[in-house]
Amino acid sequence: MRKIALISLLGMTLAVPCSSVAAEVDWTAVDKALGKTAAVQGDVHRYGIPRSDLKVKVDGVTIKPALALGGWVAFEPAKDGTMLMGDIVLTENEVTPVMTNLLQSGIEITALHNHLMRSTPATFYMHIRGHGDPAKLAGLVRQALAETKTPFEPSSTASSQAAKLDLDMNQLDQTLGAQGKINGGVYQFSIPRKETVTENGMPAPAAMGTGTAINFQPTVDGKAAIAGDFVVTAGELNPMISALRENGIEVVAIHSHMLEEQPRLFFVHFWANDDAAKLAKGLRAALDKMAVARS
């Protein structure tokens, strides 16, 4: 079913296809303002902002940006231009200046927290939301990130996106019941929830940050470091994290990312470095405790 935006006119509510609103957006202007090119998923334009400048280690593993340092912002057509949602990666001394800049520009902060434990240096993740003209919003995000060392030039890993990883990717796909993709030396899964998620009354698909993200980074001897986040309801939370712990996967954070989502959601971040096939089975056990869409 095609998504709709609700527009009020003279006291009446009219249903307008989101795709028609999207067609009116000058996305080249958004690209220019942010200095990035979007990945388009349906009506959503999503921009990756990885912290490839940071050299972060966890338990001796050097973290690739695509594993747990992959900041992003995404735009979805709305009745007032677009809805912006995002997750930007910051060091400790970058948090306050970036937050101050965003708040002064009118962009909302919806969460601030860790996604990793024992990382050196420590990293923090700031979730943001905004509404309005997408090019203006993109420029404001770029302005705020000028307070950091976030790189905006193309990553040096971009040319090797399709390189084969030292993982049995077919086995991982079969175990998790989803199709992964290679990104920056990491095998990534995005698994949407079964029900429609809304934020501030608008549909918020997986590309807007509501899908479970599971990432595998090969380490040595068939092992992989895993990180990401499960997106669960209150009733799913404890059964799901119990499944993770029963399978030797560490739970490193439980928190919210949004303010007005329906249903109410919690985001569970995890970590392990072990046999990739073993970890995939543990992750599948956790997914089986949740209402997720199956391909």
Characterize the structure shown.
There is one protein chain. The chain has helices spanning 18-23, 27-34, 65-68, 92-105, 134-145, 169-176, 234-246, 276-287; strands spanning 4-9, 12-17, 39-41, 44-50, 57-58, 61-62, 70-78, 81-91, 108-113, 119-120, 123-132, 181-183, 186-191, 198-199, 202-203, 212-218, 223-232, 250-255, 261-262, 266-275. The protein has 2 domains: 14-156, Alpha-Beta Plaits (2-Layer Sandwich); 160-295, no CATH class. It contains 8 helices and 20 strands. The radius of gyration is 19 Å and the shape is globular. By secondary structure, the chain is an alpha+beta fold. It is 26% helix and 38% strand. The strands form 5 sheets. The protein has a 6-stranded antiparallel beta sheet with strand order 3-4-7-8-11-9. It has a 6-stranded antiparallel beta sheet with strand order 12-13-16-17-20-18.
